[in-house]
Design brief:
CATH topology of the largest domain in chain A: Rna Polymerase Sigma Factor, Chain: A
Strand order of the largest sheet of chain B: 1-4-2-3
Distance between the termini of chain A: 52 Å
Oligomer: heterodimer
Number of strands of chain B: 4
Shape of chain B: elongated
CATH architecture of the largest domain in chain A: Orthogonal Bundle
Helix content of chain A: over 70%
Largest interface: A-B, 49 and 44 residues
Strand content of chain A: under 5%
Distance between the termini of chain B: 59 Å
Number of strands of chain A: 0
Structural class of chain B: alpha+beta
Number of helices of chain B: 8
Order of helices and strands of chain A: HHHHHHHHH
């Protein structure tokens, strides 16, 4: 990332190769799959455009995931502004899960507020430690653990509600 | 240990960050607190299930498109002269346009100081940079071309920072008459050979942007004027 910031922008392709998959995974967990494809592009274009703002603190992966997260937030804001129907009609990528339990879990995740889903995505599917998550979310590692606990509680509650509805 | 502390330890455990001592402490709390024990059991079960969800698939077509877009963007940064961005060329072909704008501004001779900028939203104040390059008209064509290339490279750096607005919007927003041949422009008395419109938080930032332009290096001056929001 340092080389990219210092003008060797072709090195961004190396970052894409290393971290593109992780960026896509996060976007797909936070938005829809189709939007995730676009948001990966958006993430790397933003990284290129704002490369001079990278201060050399933290990892390149963390910086890219933070950009991806911001891009996802911007996308959600745009969707909210444009029309509620867009959100209602979107198909979450996690619905690809085959069995009933996974479907239920995916539905519960969809109902989870975006900020809760975000922390679960970073902690569970990116296997990031709390200090790296804190770097991405701009909070302390302690706050990450508190938020994760709340997100898990809320998710468990939604699952329980869904189970009651189904039974 | 209270329940609040136990919850944070549980989260640390889910994250794989709890050491043996922490695990023993958490276990001791759970041995005496049934509600925390139940919460922990549920959370661990859900956590485990989350790990079984399939990873989102990044289709090869989308992956390839993403890389293509990135390569194209990188190429455009590395290649300052772009024929596919006519608005940028139009803005850079300074000698083609004449512009008049009768408001006070700040002027300086050519001293170039690099400046750092934060990410800019679209709502920043607009500033017009008017270039005066007295020798432009008498330069050989090859040297004029070098000037244009230098201008485009500089404008690329501004565009990358999302600071470049272009010229057309000023014309619309202010009702200023522009013509490619200059016959109807209200040019100040001097040799205004071109302009661009940029975004900046303050006049000082706009001035810093202008100082980075190649125009002072060519013996010209740049006039910085505020533009009303468009």
């Amino acid at each position: 990332m340092r080389r990219v910031r210092d003008g060797d922008v072709a090195q961004l392709e190396v970052l894409w190769l290393r971290h593109g998959e992780a960026v896509h995974r996060l976007c797909a967990r936070l938005i829809t799959r189709d939007d995730a494809d676009d948001l990966v592009q958006e993430t790397f274009l933003r990284a290129l455009r704002y490369r001079s703002s990278w201060r050399g603190e933290g990892s390149a992966a963390g910086w890219l995931l933070r950009i991806a997260r911001n891009a996802c937030n911007d996308q959600r804001t745009r969707e909210r502004k444009e029309q509620a129907a867009v959100t209602a009609s979107r198909e979450p990528v996690t619905h690809a899960a085959a069995d009933a339990r996974a479907d239920l879990l995916a539905t519960a995740l969809d109902r989870l507020p975006a900020d809760r889903r975000e922390i679960i995505a970073l902690a569970r599917w990116h296997d990031l430690p709390s200090d790296r998550i804190a770097e991405i979310l701009g909070c302390s590692p302690g706050a990450v653990r508190v938020r994760l606990h709340r997100a898990m509680r809320e998710l468990s509650e939604i699952i329980r509600t869904l189970e009651l509805e189904q039974s | 240990m209270n329940c609040e502390e136990a919850r944070e330890l549980l989260a640390a455990d889910l994250l794989g960050e709890l050491d043996d001592a922490g695990r023993r402490t958490l276990g001791a709390h759970h041995a005496t607190c049934t509600s925390c024990r139940a919460e922990a059991a549920t959370d661990r079960a859900v956590w485990q299930q989350l790990g079984t969800l399939p990873s989102p698939v990044w289709p090869d077509v989308a992956r390839a498109r993403s890389l293509d877009v990135l390569r194209e963007a990188v190429r455009s940064v590395n290649s300052p002269v772009r024929s596919r961005r006519p608005w940028l060329q139009a803005a850079s072909l300074a000698a083609a346009f004449l512009l008049g704008l009768l408001v006070p501004g700040s002027r300086w001779p050519g001293d170039r100081t690099p400046a750092a900028f934060d990410v800019a939203p679209d709502t920043l104040q607009r500033w017009v940079l008017l270039f005066s390059e007295p020798q432009h008209a008498v330069l050989p064509a090859a040297e004029t071309g070098l000037q244009v290339q230098a201008m485009m490279r500089w404008m690329d750096t501004i565009a990358e920072r999302d600071r470049l607005v272009s010229g057309e919007k000023l014309a619309e927003g202010r009702g200023v008459v522009l013509t490619a041949r200059g016959e109807t422009a209200y040019a100040p008395a001097e040799h205004i050979t071109g302009f661009i419109i940029v975004r900046a938080n303050t006049e000082a930032e706009a001035v810093a942007l202008a100082r980075q332009s190649p125009v002072p290096g060519f013996g010209g001056t740049v006039l910085v004027l505020p533009v009303d929001p468009i």
